[in-house]
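Suppose you are handed only these lines of text.
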Amino acid sequence: RSSSAENRQELLDELEELLIQADVGIQTAGIIRDDVSAYFAVHPGATWDDVLGIVRASMVRMLSAVPPAEAAILPPIPPEVVLVIGVNGGGKTTTIGKLAYRHVQAGRRVLLGAADTFRAAAVEQLAIWADRVGADLLAQKSGADPASVAFDAVAAGRSRGNDVVILDTAGRLHTKVNLMQELLKIQRVVGKAHEGAPHEVLLVVDATMGQNAIAQARQFHQSLGITGIVVSKLDGTAKGGVVLPLARELGLPVRWLGVGEGLDDLEPFEAGAFVDALLS
Amino acid sequence: SLAAKLDGILKKLQGHGKLDERTVDEALRELRLALLEADVNYRVVKDFVASIRPKALSEQVLASITPGHQVAWIVHQEMVRLLGGESAPIHWSGIDPMVIMLAGLQGSGKTTTAAKLALLLKRQQRRVLLVAADVYRPAAVAQLRTLSSQIGVDCDGGEGDPVAICSAAAVRARREVYDAVVLDTAGRLHIDSEMMEELARIVAAVSPKERLLVADGMTGQDAVKTAQEFHATLSLTGIILTKLDGDARGGAALSVRAVTGAPIKFVGVGEKLQDLEPFHPSRIASRILG
Ligand SMILES: Nc1nc2c(ncn2[C@@H]2O[C@H](COP(=O)(O)OP(=O)(O)OP(=O)(O)O)[C@@H](O)[C@H]2O)c(=O)[nH]1
Ligand SMILES: Nc1nc2c(ncn2[C@@H]2O[C@H](COP(=O)(O)OP(=O)(O)OP(=O)(O)O)[C@@H](O)[C@H]2O)c(=O)[nH]1
Ligand SMILES: [Mg+2]
Ligand SMILES: [Mg+2]
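From them, the structure of the protein bound to guanosine-5'-triphosphate can be written out as follows.
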């Protein structure tokens, strides 16, 4: 059906509801709404499908505007070191298991560093994943200094000739200054163990997160420099729309999508497919 | 602050003598933005703002020297009312052990909260049995066992069928005269019908007096869908919101309360086992309104 002014307003309202409910936030919804209004000015008879086409293009553009990470351009001297961070319960440890599985399937030798020395059974959890996917594990006694574990894991990765070292860290809220300091220390000592490390700093963002994910990402990025985002739990009903403001405001690229609890449930990020799922 | 923003908009009303609906609607738009930014669900915001509108168009607002503060006060009051009174968190009754069941999405904080609750009850001189009914997540049982030994509380469970684990624990609790049983279940998606069916079977087997949704306080718009589904399956008696020790506004509180009608009983405010507080509606209202 083609739109009258009233229909167009209804359409814009429906669009706004769809976008807000996908957690893209008010600013991003407003930008997309403006794109659609501009389109309406030229095509007053636009249908809902036409509008979705404009919305899709607008979102893909936002996500693709992010420059690729340096790590993707310059392959590091092995081992490649990946530091995985994020707030509590987002899916870091599980994501590491999945990433390790991918690397092992590709014939790489992977070492996991159990640098979450704080949370109950965190090391045991990672150990089970290492065993499941065929990766090595480096851990110390519970309560050990996380930076010391991270250092040892990277040093061991170097001497043992691992291709990849992935470091698990404890979940932490970005507002806890001492915990952010701890993370900085981990990053610093890892650089001492292997020049240029960590080559990747991945922030795991739970798809169910609301607008606070932006504050989280901003703080983590400011402190450490994030090279990529993993959006987890996209097999639920949450859309993870917060990655749009993360791309727009912080220039952060999404690298991977977690779509389940199994070792195979990790997909490389592709803007078109992501936006299609968001709009479905 | 919101009050100051609303003041700026509503100051235009003053000296006009009659209420300008358009100006009030402009103020309500500002309120709507604040609530969406705070992660309150889109539809819940719509209903909430609609309920505020007649109150905002009242004589009392018009007569006020600071109409914006007046509206902000009305909004705060209404939100506190919606979030529910500060009722006694856990209802004790009867001689059978009180069975408390925790359920929710993956990673929301159930295992940690189970131990926090157990510590709270222990400090109230109750004998508590913690039950590790998550047989799926790697080292989930080890996690709860570690926490329970930290606080000196007995812990059952481990392998097998979660329903059987819970039943066995309930039997043991009755036989050995525990005051309370806290069931930690596996995180699950509300759209996973098999796993939701497992929850229903646990309820059928042990009739938990308290069926609590443990939800992440930083959740965005999706909070409504999750809460609705868990409520439909469990008929929730309460909600625990976790991870409110950060700077998330916590709009999920209003969303889950609005769609389930279940009272928010506790909030998690940290990773330590002491970090569980009773819910204070006024504090959360202030936080949501920024
Ligand atoms: N459905 C689903 N569940 C996931 C996904 N990723 C992780 N999970 C689950 O989320 C829960 C938390 O995952 P963890 O890997 O322990 O999260 P974490 O960030 O390491 O948690 P902390 O170390 O405690 O901060 C577990 O139950 C995982 O199985 C996903 O993509 N989909
Ligand atoms: N900062 C903070 N962290 C919390 C709070 N409650 C739980 N956590 C952390 O959140 C993470 C996940 O907690 P769990 O207890 O493992 O969550 P869960 O719901 O049992 O996870 P699954 O069993 O995988 O579904 C852990 O790192 C906890 O320490 C809280 O109130 N504040
Ligand atoms: Mg972890
Ligand atoms: Mg758990």
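What can we learn from it? Residues A 88-89, 119, 171, 173; B 104, 106-112, 134, 137, 140, 186-187, 242-243, 245, 268-271, 275 surround guanosine-5'-triphosphate (ligand 2) (CB under 6 Å). Chain A touches chain B through 42 residues (CB under 8 Å).
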